[in-house]
Amino acid sequence: MAPPSATAPGESAPIAATPTVGSAGGPTLHGRLPPISLFFLLLGTVRQLVIPLVASAVAAPGVFSTWIFLLIVPAVLASLVRLWTFSFTLEGDELEIRHGLFTRTERNIPLQRIQNLDLVENPLHRFFGVAEVRL
What we know:
alpha+beta; 5-stranded antiparallel β-sheet; two-stranded antiparallel sheet; 3 helices; 7 strands
């Protein structure tokens, strides 16, 4: 079973991490989104698109396949980009989070500033051996 994973503030996908030795000789933890994150990202996107997809199926059944293409394909591409560009590093007393393709965002969060840490694990998370950590 894989170790529990983490997510960045505002993120909701599981992360896999691997420990290494940092430049100062102390432990460093580097992490990226594991491939199973694509499933959870797409699940969240489909959950948001249920109402527009049902409305388009009822309003114009013949155009439904076009709406699926126009809504789902960009969502899949955005999820893939998010999967490939998200990473974090935990070194010393600071958490560094990087994400974004065109606009690269880097957050440095001192561990002393973290006030709340929530571990979310639904049945699907347990099945795949991952968890969601919210800071």
